[in-house]
Amino acid sequence: MKMLPAFLFAAWAAFAGAALAETVGNVGAVNQSAEASGRKLSVGAGVGQGERITTNADGSAQIVFLDKSTMTVGHGSSITINKFVYNGSQGVGAQSATLAKGALRFVGGAVSHSEGAKIETPSGSLSVRGGMAYVCLNCQEGTVFASLYGEVTLTNGRFTVSIPPGDMVRVRPDGSFSKPYPIPPNILAMLDARFASATGQRGGASNPPTDSGVQLGNARMQDQRPWNGLDYLGAFWAGGQIVQSQSNANNQSSANTVRVLTTPHGGGSVRPPPCNDC
Amino acid sequence: MVNPFEAAQDDSAEFDRLADEIRLDPTNYEKTYAFIRLASRLGYDEEAISALQRLLMFNPDLARARKELGYLYAKLGADTSAAVQLKRALDAPNLEPEQKAQIEAQLPDIEEATKDKRLFGSLQIGIRSQSNANYFPAGGLFGVGGVQTSSLARQRSDANTFELAQGGIDWDFLGHGGPTLEMHGLIYATQQFKLPEYDVALFAGSVGPRFEIAPGLTVKPYIAGAASILGDINYLNNGGAGITFRKNFGHDFSLEPGFEYRSLYVYNGGPQLWNIAAHTAATLASGDVYTGSLNGFHRFSDSVRLEGRSAYSRANAVVSSQSSDAIDVQAMLHFEFNPPLQEIPRRWSIAPYARFMQTAFDSPNYLVDPWRARRDDAWTWGAALDAPIGARWGFMGHLEYLRNYSNIQNFRMNDFSVVFGPVAKF
Questions:
Q1: To the nearest 10°, the Cα dihedral for B87, B90, B95, B96?
Q2: Which residues is B288 bridged to in the sheet?
Q3: Topology of A22-198 in CATH?
Q4: Would the CB atoms of A202 and B319 count as touching at under 8 Å?
Q5: What is the pLDDT of residue B46?
Q6: What is the ipTM of this complex?
């Protein structure tokens, strides 16, 4: 009987621990089937540290973390949120996840901008500092790591490669990495398709957004090659400087002539000495 | 009066509040759109991208969100992703024509940015009017050998037509990730209405490879040269070489220190008086010029950016009265805004600017003033306008006031100029 209170306490502690597991983010969108630690995910539901999220061939889910970063879990994937710590007032923390299979799209938030985020995979560990990256394990193009923005580094203990924005790296059969090269549009489309809702899927929204309700304003894009105004003015300034330089000389010549004409004979000449090398 | 610091704090608090609300209630679209608009305005582009990706999971046919996503990818330099998204938005049947026009205006440049060989250029033809086209001194008086006199000449206003072509090619000649050969050039020509002796033709160019030596840090050695014609004679020519470094601190801030040497040759022809070259009182003279410079760029927000340049030059001419030290500081603040008509696909920008140039000559010019070495403090204030109308054409112009505070009356002058004309960009 003496064991009963201890057992009850242990059971309560285990239950409370699970129930009060710290929420590190919420489900932003979900296409079924997607589960977290065995429970079906729903839009807005909390996600805790240590949870494993799995999707089937039709499933996908976007997890929105407290630091505003997101991980989108692609079709047929399994990911575990290893660690997420975030100090909102200082904007620092730690973030890591393990992708065991499938595809992951990461878009950075405050933590990745300060300490960097880490995505562990069987092929290597991807560090993302302030950026956006894709990982796709055993996709039709093989295992692919791609960077869209920020500092992205892939390492597996034997090899390390820095992936510039817009580039991707393939994992060779021997575990080494290819050189980074630009992501071909068809690969990018293939990667995006891993996370996209299929026909009839609505990401878990009962009432999806429509074009008529879009409130995104009408702000034009920044120009890809912004107008370099000082370069533009430089041509006018250079032309003006040439004219000014010569007109100074011409104006002076005219004044010299006046000075000669108005100087009384023998009254002191301004005629300068010859200067052949001026 | 709104305190900018408090306004920024309010925006940041609102951004956090909206982020929390839509995290807990992702299908609250009104707040999601408010969050995207605010995030874009504050430069939290990744956060806006995440929200747009979520909307597209709810509705993959939301073309307007896809266009916005492409726009944000392009802003961050993810050009291939941007092109993929923008093309899909363009193909969507439900996107409004003006939104499609905006995409069509930008997509060629975004696709060009993904290529190894990137061409760019512009051509402007216009009219320039000047209140003091011959840069005549404001008081009309001259020093000649230290004695004050008047001149037969007088201040002349004039107008001219001009043509300005700028262009270049950036070529990753060893393929992606390798160095970039940058070849840039310009041609500028003017035709004065009343003072044809001041017609100018200027040809300038530079070429050099840019190497990345560390993440975000590039170096570019280059050669550069220029030639000009004034009236109908060759005037200033120069050639030289330089090296420039560029450090990008993210997408919004960069610094570019550099050093350059140029040899100047000023043609010594033209009318002669007492065997003395007509260029004796000119600021430009044959010799060597050494320049150290620091240029910078900063984007404060989605719609406000600053260009800045500063340089110190040492010019060694044959005679010390034409040798000089010069300081040149330029700054231009761009305000980009939406044009007045929905159909106009690109942003307009208005850009106030200022320039200060101090030129201090080594010794007096005895023909002008035997006791004082000339020192000019030239101030330029102005505002420029870039007003695209179509995807590839529009209008550009600027208003400018130049005032030179010289310690010698011969060179104290001011000039007001207006420049305007159509421009084509490709």
A1: 130
A2: B263, B316
A3: Jelly Rolls (2.60.120)
A4: no
A5: 94
A6: 0.92
